From TrEMBL:
CDD domains: ALDH_F6_MMSDH. The keyword Oxidoreductase applies. It holds the Pfam family Aldedh. It comes from the Bacteria. It comes from Vibrio caribbeanicus ATCC BAA-2122. The lineage of its organism: Bacteria, Pseudomonadati, Pseudomonadota, Gammaproteobacteria, Vibrionales. Belongs to the aldehyde dehydrogenase family. GO terms for molecular function: methylmalonate-semialdehyde dehydrogenase (acylating, NAD) activity. GO terms for biological process: L-valine catabolic process; thymine catabolic process. Residues 15-477 form the Aldehyde dehydrogenase domain. Keywords: NAD, Oxidoreductase. This is methylmalonate-semialdehyde dehydrogenase (CoA acylating). Transmembrane segments: none annotated. The keyword Magnesium does not apply. Its EC number is 1.2.1.27.
Length: 497
């Protein structure tokens, strides 16, 4: 019997009354493993009303208590780390190693949420004028919501609701309908950690349910991670309703290879950063820019990529898992075919990949193109698969110009032994997250995830101090007290009770 995924409203797991359900499949077999509801309008309204009612109590809970909730939660997440990774692997197809990394990066954000008090301290100036003091208070917004993607079903929800709730807000989570099981287990553990009823609600569905959240006046802030068209839609729609928005979009991440770089480090890093997690991550390196003579290493790169093979989640020899769906695989294959037709050289073709025992999986082997130009669709579009494209330039300046002309600005890296080249690159590149001899420069949670340009719509980014500012508002208070009003006389004795 197929499992029906619950809603979580008012502190209770409940079955939806909907007649509209979505099948959840295992990408390695395409077998249906669960069904998830399109929440009804009544259920959506219940979740938001309950979140609003709870907010008026939760915002007044001592910040130390809110921090302790997060400390208990991170402890439970660590205890159930491997269990969560296995659930995640079943619905995403990720290898167990990738799945554990997904869970762990989320746990690190929850740990940072336990430090919420220091991140909500205001500022004070005494005597801004005679006998007048001014100070600022950091206060929660109200009800916030998060709309999360399929590719990181543990990490990205944990980017959002722990920090928002620790800051004093309540939260409505709408996980990806493709991977709801991990999110629901995260919620079960949050309840077990002692979360008060109503601080977190979970609803499921598609565009209709998302539009309901975007338009509802109770929702004050929207966090989103996903594709460029949807991120743009989320941002434009939400801001039209005067909501605060952080919408993380697509990417085309370049790695620049200088001729003086360590060849072995370059090749190993490019292999892992391009096809790891089947390339289904917004920080994957999907473009290698070879400067000068470093282009001679493309053959070695093809040799090493050819050694990587996909497989099921518990195959210890598998480099990565399947793509999330048949539709996702078909889209990547179409782009590979377009690359060939447009004149790129396919050094390694993974379209005929098979995995023994799993004939129905969404498999795609490592694929490598050379001779790519910037007008080809495999360069212009985010492929979101295990595909790496190689471009060749003569100088570092050429590489910087090429990347800065690309519309995206999520992440980039440079491999070089020259400090001056590295400094020039980090200073001039118009990308939010830069790695120097680090292929995927995802920051730890005490910093923020800072994609730029077409990779982000909004102002304040995920996790770190910026996320706390995103989920809060600043109130400035100016006070004046008159010394003439100080009482005098015998009645000023302090009475002890």
């Amino acid at each position: 019997m197929t499992k029906s995924v619950s809603l979580f409203i008012g502190g209770e797991f409940c079955q939806s009354e909907t007649k509209d359900w979505i099948e959840v499949t295992n990408p390695a077999t395409n077998e249906v493993i669960a069904k998830v509801p399109h929440a009804t309008t009544t259920e959506m309204e219940q979740a938001i009303v309950n979140a609003e009612e709870t907010f008026h109590e939760w915002k007044n809970v001592a910040i130390s208590e809110r921090a302790r909730l997060m400390l208990r939660y991170q402890h439970l997440l660590k205890e159930h780390h491997d269990e969560l990774a296995e659930i995640l692997s079943q619905e995403t197809g990720k290898t167990i190693v990738d799945a554990k990394g997904d869970v762990w990066r989320g746990i690190e954000v929850v740990e940072q949420a336990g430090n919420i008090a220091s991140n909500m301290m205001g500022e004070t100036v005494e005597n801004v004028a005679t006998d007048i003091d001014t100070y600022s208070l950091i206060q929660p917004l109200g009800v916030c919501c998060g709309i999360t993607p399929f590719n990181f079903p543990a990490m990205i929800p944990l980017w959002m609701f722990p920090l928002a709730i620790a800051a004093g807000n309540t939260f409505v989570l709408k996980p990806s309908e493709q991977v709801p099981l991990t999110a629901m287990r995260l919620v079960e553990l949050f309840e077990q950690a002692g979360a008060p009823r109503g601080v977190l609600q979970v609803v499921h569905g598609g565009k209709e349910q998302v539009d309901f959240l975007l338009a509802n006046p109770v929702i004050k802030a929207v966090s989103f991670v996903g594709s460029v068209p949807v991120a743009k839609y989320i941002y434009q729609t939400s801001t039209s309703y005067n909501k605060r928005v952080q919408a993380f979009a697509g990417a085309k991440n370049h790695m620049v290879v200088m001729p003086d770089a360590n060849k072995a480090q370059v090749v190993n890093s490019l292999v892992g950063a391009s096809v790891g997690a089947a390339g289904q991550r917004c920080m994957a390196i999907s473009v290698a820019v070879f400067v000068g003579d470093s282009k001679e290493w493309i053959g070695d790169l093809a040799t090493e990529l050819a050694k990587v093979r996909p497989g099921v989640w518990n195959d210890e020899k598998a480099g990565y898992g399947p793509l999330i769906s048949k539709e996702a695989r078909s889209r990547v294959v179409r782009l590979i075919d377009e690359g060939k037709a447009q004149g790129a050289k396919c050094e390694l073709d993974g379209t005929q990949c098979v995995v023994d025992g799993y004939p129905n999986g969404n498999w795609l082997g490592p694929t490598l193109f050379s001779g790519v130009t910037t007008d080809m669709s495999i360069y212009e579009q985010e492929i979101f698969g295990p595909v790496l494209v190689c471009l060749e330039v003569e100088t570092l300046e050429d590489a910087i110009k090429l990347i800065n002309e690309n519309p995206y600005g999520n992440g980039t890296s440079i491999f070089t032994a020259n400090g001056a080249a590295a400094r020039k690159y980090q200073h001039e590149i118009q990308v939010g997250q830069v790695g120097i001899n680090v292929p995927i420069p995802v920051p730890l949670p005490f910093f923020s995830f800072t994609g730029w340009r077409g990779s982000f719509y909004g102002d304040l980014h995920a996790y770190g101090k910026q996320a706390v500012r995103f989920y809060t508002e600043t109130k400035t208070v100016t006070t004046r007290w008159f010394e003439d009003d100080i009482p005098t006389g015998p009645n000023m004795t302090i009475q002890l009770k």
